[in-house]
Design brief:
By secondary structure, the protein is an alpha+beta fold. The chain has six helices and five strands. It is 46% helix and 20% strand. A hairpin with a 2-residue loop joins strand 4 (154-165) and strand 5. Helix 1 (23-50) packs antiparallel against helix 2.
Length: 178
């Protein structure tokens, strides 16, 4: 027996509109987390550079950035402790089932950093107009940033919505309240 394309076996949850992190809250999170991870990465890369006598110092400096960003934005964010930005802003990140997202989803979400400052501007515009305040990277990773004390108010179903982004047509599975 086959299931329709839009059927999902997982239970998906919905939150009150006010529970999704606002643009201001998300900006605070991004500012704090970028400052913390950037500072740690700079310190480690300077140390690696100072103790290296050859070209390997540059490689070690770059590697320290990669390690710090993955440790902070994937491992720490995916843990019950959360990043400093999430703690201060009183927010947490969840998947469609209301649980902490997996490390794969967080790593995929982090990969949007390659777009640099443009990603920040796109997120700023996107989040302010999205009903569930998802950034574009959240849509791809199936994650939501919600207030820390938020509890699901019900369940929903997965629906597919078409978005036109910079000339690209994208189909995203989203949660619709039922």
């Amino acid at each position: 027996m086959t299931q329709p394309m839009n059927a999902r076996s997982e239970t998906v949850v919905v939150y009150r509109d006010a529970d999704y992190a606002s643009v201001g809250r998300r900006l605070l999170i991004d500012f704090i987390d970028t400052a913390v991870a950037g500072t740690v990465a700079v310190v480690l890369s300077v140390i690696a550079w100072m103790f290296s006598q050859d070209a390997a110092g540059g490689l070690a400096a770059v590697a320290s950035w990669v390690v710090v960003w993955i440790a902070y934005f994937v491992l720490l964010k995916g843990s019950r402790f959360r990043t400093l930005g999430y703690v201060i802003a009183g927010a947490r990140i969840v998947d469609r089932t209301g649980q902490r997202p997996g490390y794969g989803a967080l790593l995929f979400r982090l990969s949007f950093v390659i777009f640099g400052p443009a990603n920040f501007l796109i997120d700023l515009l996107w989040v302010s107009t999205d009903l569930s305040r998802q950034a574009l990277r959240d849509k791809f990773a199936h994650t939501y940033v919600i207030r820390n004390g938020a509890a699901p108010v019900g369940t929903g179903r997965v629906v597919y919505r078409v978005y036109m982004v910079f000339g690209w047509t994208m189909l995203f599975p989203e949660v619709s309240g039922s």
